[in-house]
Amino acid sequence: MSEQIICSDVALGYEDGIVTEGLNFTVSSGDYLCILGENGSGKSTLIKALLGLKPQISGEIKWGKDFSARDIGYLPQQTPVQRDFPASVQEIVISGCISKLGFRPFYSKKEKELAMEKMVQLKVDDIKNRCYRELSGGQQQRVLLARALCAANKMLLLDEPVTGLDPIAQTDLYEHIYKLNQKGITIVMVSHDISSAVKYASHILHISKKQLFFGTKEDYVNSKAGQRFLENEVAFNE
Q1: Does pTM top 0.85 for this prediction?
Q2: Secondary structure of residue 27 in the 3-state scheme
Q3: Rounded Cα–Cα distance for residues 202 and 119 (Å)
Q4: Which residues of 197-210 are buried (b: 16+ CB within 10 A; e: fewer)?
């Protein structure tokens, strides 16, 4: 598997200080990496840095050969305003092709076919003419996944994609994401849901003020950081 992102001794933060540091990890093609950590540990900041939207304080974030930010589809956390967006499912999905338009004012036949292909893949083609804001939370997230896949088809960066969804919708979305990964799309996902991370991910990155763990999920479950985090989740849910 080829390396797509290489992080070497990266520190992230803002003007008032460092949020997390000592980040050393790689993401290879076909990986399913879950980024875990407490609130405020820098998970969303790391996603922005991987996208090139925020510079690191120190260290290096490098793209692998034949890979760039253009190969990444991004699904950010939704805001209430975004959930109420008055456009059709089809319009939302095909908007993922905007970067391909250049100076053209209209989408090409190829781009329309791509949008339909992704709607079929995420099983939202039967609601393509419905208004996005009328959909359930789970349907909206699948629409946004289809849109992200129109933008890029090598890697998806997902920032807590199941937030606000009921348990059935969460499981449905996780299964769709897992199937995409099985078809060769690299997944990098920020999550608070450690049980699902352990179930679906191939690799875990656990961060706090520094990197606590990076490796396979099997090694994570047996690590001190993993056992402590799993115990805390069990205690919280009891």
Answers
A1: yes
A2: strand
A3: 26
A4: bbebbbbbbbbbee
